[in-house]
Design a protein that fits this description.
Blueprint (H helix, E strand, L loop, with lengths): L3 E5 L1 H6 L6 H15 L3 E6 H8 L5 H10 L3 E4 L3 H12 L8 H12 L4 E3 L9 H13 L6 E3 L1 H5 L3
Parallel strand pairs: 1-2, 1-4, 2-3, 4-5
Helix pairs in contact: 5-6
């Protein structure tokens, strides 16, 4: 059976260490335990790497160690990705102040990833964003994308 392809935004990496959010942290750790068994094909981008490298120590080292413990493919931010992200922004699906979130979504869509995994409820994991993003995707000739939490990904097994 084909493994699910998953784009992991930066929130997933951070919640692995989120002692102030123990429930989300537990689900994230369980998710990464499954990922380390190569149950999924994992994807990130230079944007995720940049956000990790901008983290203060010791968090940055923790994040880099976690990243090195799983196999990931780094997706390129192309003109096509930027163009689709700009559609999300110009349609006011995502605020221009959160352009990076639009880029995360566009990266997954353009690269035909099955799911985006995130804990970012405000800008990504919510019904309005999912519906409106997919409206743009279909109008632009792309397939729909699902944006889920690690807990929901486990239910696909």
């Amino acid at each position: 059976m084909k493994r699910l392809s998953l784009y992991l935004d930066t929130s997933i990496w951070n919640f692995y260490f989120a002692k102030d959010a123990p429930v989300e942290m537990e689900h994230t750790i369980e998710f990464f335990n499954e990922a380390k068994k190569r149950k999924y094909d994992l994807f990130i981008s230079a944007l995720v790497l940049s956000e990790i490298l901008d983290a203060p120590e010791p968090r940055k080292s923790d994040l880099l160690n976690l990243l090195n413990g799983v196999e990931v493919v780094n997706l390129e931010i192309t003109a096509e990705v930027r163009g689709l992200a700009n559609k999300y922004l110009s349609n006011k699906i995502i605020s221009e102040n959160y352009e990076d979130d639009a880029i995360h979504i566009a990266l997954a869509v353009v690269n035909r990833i099955d799911l985006i995994v995130s804990w970012n409820f405000k800008h990504m994991v919510n019904v309005r964003v999912n519906r409106e993003v997919n409206g743009v995707n279909l109008m632009e000739g792309y397939k729909a994308i699902e944006i889920r939490t690690p807990l929901e990904v486990k239910e696909y097994d």
